[in-house]
Amino acid sequence: xxxxxxxxxxxxxxxxxxxxxxxxxxxxxxxxxxxxxxxxxxxxxxxxxxxxxxxxxxxxxxxxxxxxxxxxxxxxxxxxxxxxxxxxxxxxxxxxxxxxxxxxxxxxxxxxxxxxxxxxxxxxxxxxxxxxxxxxxxxxxxxxxxxxxxxxxxxxxxxxxxxxxxxxxxxxxxxxxxxxxxxxxxxxxxxxxxxxxxxxxxxxxxxxxxxxxxxxxxxxxxxxxxxxxxxxxxxxxxxxxxxxxxxxxxxxxxxxxxxxxxxxxxxxxxxxxxxxxxxxxxxxxxxxxxxxxxxxxxxxxxxxxxxxxxxxxxxxxxxxxxxxxxxxxxxxxxxxxxxxxxxxxx
Length: 346
Hints:
Layout (H helix, E strand, L loop, with lengths): L7 E6 L2 E7 L17 H15 L12 H4 L6 H4 L8 E6 L7 E7 L6 E8 L2 H19 L8 E5 L4 E4 L5 E2 L6 H8 L2 E7 L1 H6 L3 H11 L1 H11 L5 E6 L8 E4 L2 E4 L6 E4 L3 H13 L21 H17 L7 H16 L3
Antiparallel strand pairs: 1-2, 2-3, 3-4, 4-5, 5-7, 6-7, 8-11, 9-10, 10-13, 11-12
């Protein structure tokens, strides 16, 4: 990037923009090919905004000293993996506000108008850790031969800036499709098993106390009884944020992006439960157990009782994580669902 700070105009609420677009840039439809809002009102607004930008209509530009703009100044696209002779057009998506917020820069080839490289820039110290963790996960996935994920191109360790290849496709829908199920199958660890009891033994006492204070002793006691199960189950790689907006569909196949919450070894159905509960919470559905209704099936058999216990395990593991303020509504949803799930009898 040239030494001068780039000038952008924001898209989104004035106090919380979601995209930064270079002033004077006329985006083609290819530039935003993978972006599809889920809410109807957002899709209408987005449909109206794109032709307006192509005609030159835009909000007021941000100041070069704006925090969102200054974090991008001085970045060397060539060092990060840009291989074209001409400079890219950087379209910047700003992640969800919170402790790990980051700027996701889509480097657009001005000749083809398509995105050729993704660069992640941390906006907080916690985001640096998350970007480094994802870089490590992408290397592990590549070494394991897992191809349904981006490939790490470059990591600048100290500032926590990383670049990766582009995963083409549209965001997945709000239901667990066949392509999504196949993707989960591929995350199974060959010849590796894990038990609920082993996972429960890893719970930190301080975190358990926090859940005890929130859920009540009866709920937590029932949940821990469910976790006291030494039946061997196939271990899987956990994506950690397995949700429609992190799944790309293209030509009948699915791929996963955003591996910042990934774990090398975990319980089956963790990601599947995350998918259904995250969608239900964000779209205002009432809390309820999903073990009876979950459509996803592994090629190996999981009895109904184990599916319920695995749902309890997912809910507990999410509640035991440090929860940023922005996710408090999901925490309340998880607590309500845990109360109902431990009372469910199959």
